[in-house]
Amino acid sequence: MLKMVEEYYQNDSTDLMQIENVSKQISDLINSGDYSRIETLDKIRLDLIKNFKDKNNKNFQTLIRNISEKNNNDINQIKHKLIALKDEKSKFIKRFMAYNY
Question: Which phi-psi region, left, alpha or beta, contains residue 33 (left: φ > 0; alpha: ψ -120 to 50)?
Answer without folding.
Answer: left
